[in-house]
Amino acid sequence: MSASAFKQSNGVAETHSLRMRLRTVTQTDHDRLENLMESLDFAVTLENYTSLLLLLLGFHRPLEARLLELDWSETGLNLKERCKSHLLVADLAHLGLDSDSIARVRNCPHLPCASTIPEAVGVLYVLEGSTLGGQLISRRIKSELGVSEVSGGSFFLAYGGRTGEMWRGFIEVL
Q: Which H or E run contains 7?
């Protein structure tokens, strides 16, 4: 059933229920990641930051390709505007990596299951939620490395001032 048909047939209560279910199902992983980030007192160096971006590209690029294979037309989501791997490519290039090195980044072999729209919406829930946390990371890399949205830090500020709007737009589709 498409997201729009779901909303029409089941109403707001069911939409709210789906959001709560997604929140519940992902809460343990979210808490673990949050605790890990709080407990890490790692040195923010340009080398570490670049390594992180390379890992994220190896995850986002194949996952976005998989998500784009699905038919999102009935969901009300413009998936292309939510893809962020191009921002990782731009950030890495800005930090001095050449296009051949970026193209050779190894893709993550263990991607989340996203072969149906419901599975993909679950994956997207986590990805979209991470954009909220990305703002905190962005502030840290700016203060410690001087890296901003225009100097290699665009991924963590993916939507800029539209982050809240994009999150609410995603939640409305649920």
A: helix 3-39
Distance set, CA 127 to CA 3, 17, 68, 130, 135 (Å): 18, 20, 14, 5, 13
- The DSSP 8-state label assigned to residue 72 in this structure reads -
State the pLDDT at residue 55: 92
CA 30, 26, 73 angle in degrees (round to 5)?
120
Phi, psi for 23 (deg, rounded to 5): -60, -45
Reference 87, options 156, 164, 3; nearest CA is 156
Neighbouring residues of 101: CB distance < 8 A, sequence distance ≥ 6 = 92
> Where do the structural domains in the chain lie, given as residue ranges?
3-173
Q: Determine what percent of the chain is predicted with pLDDT higher than 90.
A: 60
Question: Residue 53: which of 82, 110, 96 has the closest Cα?
Answer: 96
- To the question of pTM greater than 0.70 for the whole model, the response is yes
Nearest alpha-carbon partner for 158 in 98, 85, 104: 85
CATH class as words, domain 3-173: mainly alpha
